[in-house]
Design brief:
The complex is a heterodimer of chains A (345) and B (325).
Chain A lengths: L1 H10 L4 H28 L4 H13 L6 H10 L6 H13 L14 H36 L4 H15 L2 H15 L19 H38 L2 H9 L3 H37 L5 H10 L3 H29 L1 H7 L1
Helix pairs in contact in A: 2-13, 3-4, 6-7, 6-9, 6-11, 6-13, 7-9, 8-9, 8-11, 9-11, 11-12, 11-13, 12-13, 13-14
Chain B lengths: L6 H26 L1 H23 L30 H36 L2 H16 L2 H13 L8 H11 L1 H15 L2 H8 L4 H12 L1 H24 L10 H10 L2 H4 L2 H29 L1 H5 L7 H13 L1
Helix pairs in contact in B: 1-13, 2-3, 2-13, 3-4, 3-6, 3-7, 3-10, 4-7, 5-6, 6-10, 10-11, 10-13, 11-13
């Protein structure tokens, strides 16, 4: 008992150096990403004001006062100042939460459009990634323990096949089968119209009910990676010295397996951090198919309207979400794996 | 004029054949592996399909002169699209470009990631950190966003360049994962004794990179190629689905785009939407199976052990026998 407490005390110190290093990395990558975000639209030939102006001329016919072009450029925040001045203004605007004015949803500012959409996307990403992580790891553990048997091959092949089917086609098939042919689930939207958004039970039930199909589809397509990762991690672990040692200590079978499982889980946890970006990609596609009012739906609109401020805003929001997710997992990892802390110090 | 063979020549030739044998060993293991064998057979079949498409497609894939939205008949084995095009011809003709994009992205992406990863793993600490930061940016930023951004950028100049912009977009968004792998592998190999001894005897850096490091990571390079090729194939469908590709080209991605855009899943034209999806998953599947094989080369513990051991001692003996055989 005493010894246990002592060990607990020994393990307690927070890996400060490690966390600081991660934070530094976080800001470095963040800065790089917002710079990329600044640079990309400026590489694109033509500017949205010109496009909107030409569009007006084309559809309206006749002539439009050229002064309107200047006005549009001011509205959209486009200037001919030197790049470094623009960059500085861009950073200043970001600090004030000013992301510009959306062109597709003119005159709404980008931040308003995004604040309505982001919670839905985050909800989809968080739920589907977490559920997929747990189911995938358990399935991978099952496959790894029964390696090279029929059970293993069945699990591997089934999840691999789901992962290799184009995700958006799968979504359309699921949508047709379970929302159109068999109208069990709703076709679109995140909650039904006769509930009021907020913290009340009907709304939560409705929102959960509406999210079942999108989440299930995302889980189906993302399961394969976890299963494969876990299977290939747990097999070497089952053959390792510490497992032989625990066997000779006389531990029970399920105890031994859970020891191997816990060790095999660590590399997959790194994968969890990295997959957040990937699953955001998946979610964006799914949202456009299930007409789910998240960032993905707006992204398609923004692309079609060449709405650069909105594209940039979405880019920025998603990057922040992904980076914060990464940071959290990284810091958790520092607590879970003592080797990481040693590596830093 | 006769030149008498120098005594060293024989040894040199022997060494060369030894090194080619060592170089080819991963491939022979690959073809001895059952999963990889199936994957390889599938890939060959798909290449055959694309050759058939190149030489002997039954109809012109772009001709929209046939009965519209017709189910499978003897004249049109896979039916026709809502525009009146022959689905089978599109499927056959579309095979080549789809495979080509997958392979091109796999090759180019792997090349870039090997170069950047190995350089970063061998560079000074500062350069290493810088490259790592850039790699992290590309890893963290969701690929779909980059595809959209670069896609809209290339949209204006698409038509004349064929598949080049699509491949470029996919390589830009797909190289980072491999670079990260190669960086960490190079760093871990760089610390080993045999590299240290090479440095000590004065072997040049280039020679160490090419003769020692690249050679010892061949399985990882091959595995990364399949991964990136999978990304390229899936990415092609995403590029087309998002509408930032050239939609007049015939490939499995554009087929899906048009099928989905015409709501083939609602109007019941299953023969339009399912064949390209299934072909894509077969292609992905073959890459995955090949990857399984490569995994077993890179990670021998996956290869040697057949079942959960019941009696450790006995199993150990069996493994030893297996290993020697």
């Amino acid at each position: 008992m005493m010894e246990k407490e002592k060990r607990g005390e020994h393990r307690a110190p927070v890996p400060i150096k490690y966390i600081l290093k991660r934070l530094l990395q976080f800001f470095g990558v963040f800065f790089g990403a917002i710079t990329l975000n600044f640079a990309l639209p400026r590489l694109i030939p033509g500017n949205p004001a010109q496009l909107a102006y030409l569009n007006l001329v084309k559809t309206g016919g006749g002539t439009v006062n050229p002064a309107y072009l200047n006005q549009l450029m001011v509205e959209y925040g486009i200037s001919n100042k030197p790049l470094y001045v623009q960059y500085f203004q861009y950073l200043l605007g970001l600090l004030h939460g000013n992301l510009g004015v959306s062109i597709a949803f003119y005159p709404d500012p980008v931040s308003t459009v995004l604040l309505g959409a982001l919670p839905w996307t985050l909800y989809l990403v968080a739920t589907s990634t977490t559920i997929s992580f747990f189911i995938g790891n358990r399935l991978g553990r099952y496959a790894g323990i029964n390696r090279n048997t029929a059970k293993d091959i069945l699990v591997d092949l089934a999840t691999m096949f789901l992962a290799s089917f184009p995700a958006f086609v799968l979504a359309f098939i699921v949508l047709t089968l379970f929302a159109v042919q068999l109208p069990i689930f709703p076709v679109s939207e995140a909650y039904s119209l006769n509930v009021t958004p907020g913290l009340n039970l009907p709304f939560i039930i409705s929102a959960t009910y509406h999210s079942i199909l999108p989440i299930a589809t995302i889980i189906m397509t993302s399961l394969g990676g976890w299963v494969l990762g876990m299977r290939n991690n747990i097999i070497p672990n089952l053959n390792s010295d510490f497992i032989n040692f625990s066997e000779s200590l006389g531990l029970r079978d399920h105890q031994i397996k859970s020891i191997a499982y816990r060790n095999a889980l660590l590399p997959n946890l790194t994968g969890f951090a990295m997959s957040i970006g990937l699953s955001v990609s998946g979610v964006i596609i799914e949202e456009s198919i299930f007409s789910y009012p998240g960032v993905g739906l707006y992204m398609i609109t923004a692309i079609n309207a060449l709405d650069y401020p909105l594209i940039q805003g979405i880019f920025l929001m998603v990057i922040i979400a992904v980076l914060v997710g990464n940071l959290i997992v990284d810091i958790l990892y520092g607590f879970l794996d003592p080797r990481i802390r040693q590596e830093v110090s | 004029m006769d030149i008498a063979p120098l005594p060293g020549d024989d040894v040199k030739a022997k060494r060369r054949s030894e090194s080619t044998r060592r170089f080819l060993k991963p491939f022979s293991i690959l073809l001895n592996n059952n999963k990889a064998k199936v994957g390889f057979a599938l890939l060959i079949a798909l290449v055959a399909v694309s050759i058939i498409g190149l030489l002997a497609a039954p109809y012109n894939p772009n001709a929209d002169i046939y009965a519209r939205g017709q189910g499978p008949t003897s004249a049109h084995l896979l039916g026709t699209t809502a525009y009146g095009q022959d689905v089978l011809s599109q499927l056959l003709v579309g095979a080549g470009p789809t495979l080509m994009v997958g392979f091109a992205v796999g090759l180019a992406g792997t090349l870039i990631s090997v170069i950047i990863g190995v350089i970063s793993g061998f560079a000074s600490e500062r350069v290493n950190a810088l490259i790592n930061g850039i790699v992290n940016i590309f890893l963290i930023v969701p690929g779909v966003l980059l595809i959209m951004l670069f896609g809209t950028f290339f949209l204006g100049i698409h038509q004349s360049l064929g598949y080049a912009p699509t491949i470029l977009i996919l390589v830009i968004t797909g190289w980072a994962f491999g670079a990260r792998t190669f960086r960490s592998v190079t760093m871990s190999i760089g610390k080993r004794d045999f590299i240290l001894s090479s440095i000590l005897i004065g072997e040049s850096r280039m020679s160490i990179i090419f003769r020692q490091i690249i050679r010892s990571i061949v399985p990882i390079i091959v595995s990364n190629f399949f991964f990136t090729a999978m990304y390229g194939t899936m990415g092609l469908t995403f590029v087309e689905y998002l509408g930032v590709g050239n939609l007049l080209q015939v490939n499995w991605g554009t087929m899906l785009y048009w099928a989905i855009n015409n709501e083939a899943y609602l109007t019941g034209l299953w023969w339009w939407i399912l064949p390209p999806s299934i072909m894509i998953s077969v292609l992905m599947f073959s890459f995955t199976l090949l990857n399984f094989g490569v995994d077993e080369i890179a990670n021998p513990s996956l290869r040697r052990f057949k079942a959960v051991k019941k009696n450790p001692r006995q199993q150990e003996l069996k493994e030893k026998v297996d290993f020697n055989a």
